Each structure stands twice: as C-alpha cells, then as structure tokens.
C-alpha cells in the first residue's frame, strides 16, 4: 500500500498547528491516517517540532514518501540525514561507528545553529521592541511639543487680550478722574471772589459807622464841614477822626 508522510491541519484560522501523520496516499487531507509521529507549530519562533525519531526513520526506510513540508521537517530533525548514513553503511561505504560519529557531529552543529537562530530571533524581537518604544517616545515628544506651543500661543493671546482691555480701560479712568477736577475749579475760583467781596464789605462798614457817628458828636456846622472833608478822606485814605478835629479848631476863628 502506498503511504505518505504529511501534515494534518488543526487550530483556528489565524493560529494553525499541524500533526505529522503517516496516511494512505489516497486518503483526504484531514481523513483517516495510519500513525501520528509528531506535531509542528509554525507560530512560535523558532518553530516547535516534536517528532518520534525512530518511527519516522522506520516509515522513511519502508518507502513512505514525505511531502515537501514534511521532508523539510524531517531534514531539520535529522531523520533524512540518518537514513542517508544508514544507506552508506548498508552499501559498505562506511562503518556503523563512522556513521554514528558523523551523525553526532551533525547534531551538534545543527543544535548550535538552532541556538544561534533562537538568539537572533530574541535579539530581533528586542530591537523591534526598542525601536517601537523609541518611535512612540518621539511621537509623544512631538505631541507634547505641539501642545506646549499651542498652550504658549493661548497664553500669548490671553495676555494680548488683557493688555488691550487695560489699554481701553485706561482712558476711561483718566476721564473719570479729570471730570471732578474740572467741576471743582469753578468753586475754587468763586471762593476767592467771595472772599474779596467780604473784605470790601468789611472795609466799607467802618467808614459808614464813622460817617454816622460824626454828626452826633459835633454841631451842625461841624457836620457840614465833615461832609465836605469826607470825600477827601476817601480819596487820600486818611482816618475820618482827623478831618473832624480840624473844624473844631477853626470855630473860634469864625467868631
């Protein structure tokens, strides 16, 4: 019966994993199989491969034909290498010890390559994460810079509006301050005028009193002379008492 080593798919749409099975060549992909010899998960880095080495080597030796993907997996795990060395021993090209030594050396080299590949994958993931963090940091810095510039522009606009409001309010304050002063100046000017009127009234009242008292203290002729001398006293700014004393001295001369 012709047999085939192939993969049988399982898992969800975005996360598949496979079983490595030996099945009849005429069976459908997900149909019946003869034996399950391993699993393969391509999602992990590196890929996860678990295989029954002896059973896989047996089916390859008995003539099972692997598919391309199954052949790559078997080569990766060394099944095909071991089958090739066994054919060399069967043909007499080398002894079994030599074949075992070559296979051990190949396994060591393969293990070092796998380890290096895993290390490179880890380093690549770390570098990718570092670059992502740096890119996010730059985006954050740019966003903060834009926000700071916007905030400064808003502050400058607020200061400009405040300065404009203060400039508009300053003339109004000046007019309100000058208006009471303008109203107070007429009162200040009227006050000296009233003071002058009061002084002139005070100056005229003593003269009136002296004019009224002079006729009572003297005779009729003396009153006439007092009235004649009164205008002279006003023009010369002399006291009225001196003018009244002169007529009294001239009366004996008239007799």
Structure overview:
Strands 4-3-2-1-5 form a five-stranded mixed sheet. It is elongated. Residues 181-192 and 204-255 have low confidence and may be disordered. The longest helix has 122 residues, at 96-217. Helix content is 73%, strand content 12%. It is built from six helices and five strands. By secondary structure, the protein is α+β, with helices and mostly antiparallel strands. The N and C termini lie far apart (196 Å). A hairpin with a 4-residue loop joins β1 (3-11) and β2 (16-24). It has a domain at 3-94: S16 Ribosomal Protein, Chain: A (2-Layer Sandwich).
Q: Can you identify the CATH class of the domain at 3-94?
A: Alpha Beta
| Named CATH architecture of the domain at 3-94 | 2-Layer Sandwich
Share of helix among residues?
A: over 70%
Number of strands: 5
Mean pLDDT: 76
> Quick one: biggest sheet?
5 strands, mixed
Short description:
The chain has 255 residues and is α+β, with helices and mostly antiparallel strands. The chain has helices at residues 53-61, 68-77, 79-91, 96-217, 220-236, 240-254, and strands spanning 3-11, 16-24, 35-41, 48-51, 65-66.
């Amino acid at each position: 019966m012709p047999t085939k080593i192939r993969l049988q798919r399982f898992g969800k749409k975005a996360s598949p994993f496979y079983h490595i099975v030996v099945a009849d060549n005429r069976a459908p992909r997900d149909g019946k199989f003869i034996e399950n010899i391993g699993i393969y998960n391509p999602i992990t880095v590196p890929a996860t491969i678990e295989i029954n080495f002896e059973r896989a080597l047996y089916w390859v030796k008995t003539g099972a034909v692997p598919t391309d993907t199954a052949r790559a997996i078997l080569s990766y795990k060394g099944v095909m290498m071991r089958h090739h060395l066994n054919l060399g021993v069967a043909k007499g090209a080398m002894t079994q010890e030599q074949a075992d030594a070559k296979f051990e050396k190949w396994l060591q080299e393969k293990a070092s390559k796998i380890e290096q590949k895993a290390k490179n994958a880890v380093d690549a993931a770390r570098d990718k994460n570092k670059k992502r963090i740096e890119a996010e940091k730059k985006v954050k810095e740019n966003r903060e810079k834009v926000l700071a510039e916007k905030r400064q522009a808003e502050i400058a606009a607020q200061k400009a509006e405040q300065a404009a409001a203060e400039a508009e309010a300053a003339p109004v304050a000046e007019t309100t301050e000058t208006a009471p002063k303008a109203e107070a100046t007429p009162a200040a000017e009227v006050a000296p005028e009233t003071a002058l009127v009061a002084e002139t009234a005070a100056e005229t009242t003593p003269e009136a009193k002296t004019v009224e008292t002079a006729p009572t203290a003297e005779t009729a002729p003396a009153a006439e002379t007092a009235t004649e001398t009164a205008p002279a006293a006003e023009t010369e700014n002399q006291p009225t008492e001196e003018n009244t004393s002169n007529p009294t001295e001239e009366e004996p001369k008239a007799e």
